[in-house]
Amino acid sequence: MKKSETPIPSPAIADPSEPGGDADVPIAPAEGSPPPEPMEALKARAAKADDHWERLLRTTADFDNFKKRAARERQEAVKFANENLIQKIIPVLDNFEMALSAAQSSSANDLKSLSEGVAMIHAQLRQALTEAGLEELIATDQVFDPNLHEAVSQQESSAVAEGHVLQQLRKGYRLRERLLRPATVIVARKPAAPVA
Questions:
Q1: Domain boundaries, the chain
Q2: What fold is seen in the domain 134-196?
Q3: Which strands make up the sheet holding 165-170, listed edge to edge?
Q4: Are 168 and 139 in contact (CB under 8 A)?
Q5: What is the per-residue pLDDT for 20?
Q6: pLDDT at 132 over 60
Q7: Which residues in 8-37 are b (16+ Cβ under 10 Å) and which e?
Q8: Which residue has the higher pLDDT, 109 or 188?
Q9: Which of 191, 84, 182 is nearest to 133 (CA)?
């Protein structure tokens, strides 16, 4: 015989919207977990997080713009660093051109005035360079310093102490604290003892 097949009744699932459903029953939090926060508190935290995110984006953009502006200003400063010096040297160039023009059209009698004009131009150029921070190194009679002087030879001398600069062949220059060109010098040494 066959067993009669009868459906097994399944437990009824309650509809939360129906009266007597689970809608009225609060869900208990699992043991050890924190109690759920109210929805308003979560919304407030989300709004605050969005505000912080927007601030971060603005600050990052501002910083990127600052870096670009600083790089551009640095490039311009390097590009036009000598502008002030060039403006001081242009009148010197104009005076040299006038002196050359006067030299070509002058007679032998005007040699003295031409010489005076060139000396004035030289003084004007030296003044412009001094104002820019250029300093001339005076080496004659100074103790030889390999950091400031370039020795090309030694020469016997009884008038100048040994190890001192006997003669300066070419001037040296320093721009503030930095040496641009050492002075080219001849260094004194003791005269050889006479052979008896």
A1: 134-196
A2: Nucleotide Exchange Factor Grpe; Chain A, domain 2 (2.30.22)
A3: 149-156, 183-189, 165-170
A4: yes
A5: 53
A6: yes
A7: eeeeeeeeeeeeeeeeeeeeeeeeeeeeee
A8: 188
A9: 84
DSSP tag of 21: S
Rounded CA-CA distance 152/138 in Å is 16
Confidence of residue 27 (pLDDT cuts 50, 70, 90): low
* pLDDT level of residue 19 (50, 70, 90 thresholds): low
Number of C-beta neighbours around residue 103 at 10 A: 13
Q: Which of 22-26, 82-86, 173-177 is predicted with the least confidence, judged by mean pLDDT?
A: 22-26
For residues 111, 116, 119, 123, the Cα torsion angle rounded to the nearest 10 degrees is -160
Smallest CA-to-CA distance from 185 within 193, 160, 175, 196 is with 160
Task: Considering only residues 3 and 123, tell me which one the structure prediction assigns the higher pLDDT.
Answer: 123
Helix axes 111-131, 83-105, angle to 10 degrees: 180
Contacting residues for 142 by C-beta, under 8 A, at least 6 apart:
149, 164, 165
Number of Cβ within 10 Å of residue 62's Cβ equals 10
The pair of structure tokens assigned to 88 is 């001081």
